[in-house]
Design goal:
9 strands; alpha+beta; 197 residues; four-stranded antiparallel sheet; five-stranded antiparallel sheet; transferase (chains A, B); homodimer
Chain lengths: 197, 197
């Protein structure tokens, strides 16, 4: 059991249709489009969802309550201190967080052997949190994910708990993390060709 | 390929020997010992490494440089503000971070079917970052992991960037996260029996 995805080609065709629609609507992070295209040009893989990594300022009623959270600012690139401050000034209620998230790519694989090949390539290129996300008779899904992350509480209910100088410092650290994970994405794009049959 | 672990029983015997030694040396987090014992009493699983989750204060030359990082304080439980401050006051050089990490359990499974059963049970109980960590002809490894996490920069090279009031607030948030993941561990211990043959 679970040796290969059933209806892989059908699944891939459906995912590619979804991707074309998302591209037309400008919903795909621009700087990973070429990586996604390279993965999708491989016979035994296709991308389902992906995020190129981001810095954000988020307001949420409680930690982890994504349903009711609001992004006050979100950037898939290095960010300027003043941009972050503009987002922070829009805060009114709930918990205010400064977040960094590493890139995440979900990739369907034809067989378990294909899944493991991709997993090992990604881990070797520094995507150390990569894993096999789900295994079912329907789908084999590899998650490519890196370690960069920040979760910094900034304030609550309109009150700021930290100084502007502090925010300036964490923005520097966040930008360093962005540079690091962008470098990993670039290397992945260079190396992914190795998985061509 | 990859349908089952080769030499599962041999691997399990070796892991159990290692666990007994770690237990004798007091190296296993006390509050997950009974959970580990329950998992290991199942025919098709064994635990390899595990952490019950923790709050810590860490000094590191650069973010992610674990090799040269030093724990100034580490607690596998809720923590008092004053304990955290004692650790913070020991800071001298490098970047100072306040961290929360969710529990992580690594569990060897006999077959891919066993691995997927455990994966789905864990995800259903709130361990949403659970995954299949590695798949090889040698071993099938499930990682059970939850979402709670904090990564907060506190200062650098002996200088503190935040106020004591701020540290008090993030300690509250961290303790809330600890209560949440301890609850998930408890539910896992109650439900794990379902995987008995």
């Amino acid at each position: 059991m679970f040796l290969y995805s059933k209806n892989f080609d059908e699944q891939k065709a459906k995912a590619m249709k979804g991707l074309r629609k998302a591209l037309e609507e400008g919903k795909v992070d621009e700087d990973i489009i070429s990586l996604l295209e390279k993965i999708n040009s491989l016979e035994n893989y296709f991308t389902t969802s992906s995020c190129s990594g981001r810095i954000s300022v988020m307001e949420m009623p409680h930690f982890g309550d994504k349903l009711n959270s609001v992004w006050l600012g979100k950037w898939h690139r290095e960010v300027a201190f003043e941009e972050v401050m503009e987002a922070v000034r829009r805060h009114r209620s709930g918990q205010l967080w400064f977040l960094v998230r590493s890139p995440i790519l979900h990739v369907g694989a034809r067989t378990m052997e294909d899944a493991v090949k991709l997993l090992n390539l990604a881990i070797g290129l520094g995507f150390k949190y990569s894993n096999i996300k789900s295994v079912s008779h329907k789908k084999l899904l590899v998650e490519i994910r890196s370690t960069e992350r920040m979760d910094v509480p900034l304030g609550e209910d309109g009150e700021l708990w930290v100084s502007e100088e502090y925010i300036e410092r964490i923005v520097d650290i966040a930008n360093e993390q962005v540079r690091r994970f962008k470098g990993k994405l670039k290397r992945l794009e260079e190396e992914i060709e190795k998985l061509r049959n």
